């Protein structure tokens, strides 16, 4: 029986479609491994750098409520307007923050942490990955009798 052509017979066969899908999914499966291979150690350094910048921003916020700074036994002690003390000290390659409820590491992979008292506050210095990060924290400018208008952020 002769075959009768029915309109437009252009298109893809099932075999062509399966081969195309196989090639597409093979490429999709390999791409994540190629992207992972392109990560360099410098991306790890930038993550550490971001953590240091974030910590310095947090210290700036904490300084808004600081009443007094002291350096005792190689650690920085910050007393806030409520009389709560928080201390920062270096242990190995970590910076540890201690307070009422214990301590925890706030920075890792640091080479050195230092604090120096100046007339209007303290200068903190962190050395990590061969770079030096420095921030000056100042006392709160509110007089003792006006503490009532200063409230802590949640």
From TrEMBL:
Parts of the chain that traverse the membrane: 12-35
Subcellular location: Cell surface
Pfam families assigned: N_methyl
A GO CC annotation given for this chain: cell surface
Primary location group: other
Coiled coil feature spans: none
GO BP annotations, alphabetical order: establishment of competence for transformation
Keywords associated with the record: Competence, Membrane, Transmembrane, Transmembrane helix
InterPro entries (alphabetical): N_methyl_site
Name of the protein: Competence protein ComGF
Organism the protein comes from: Natribacillus halophilus
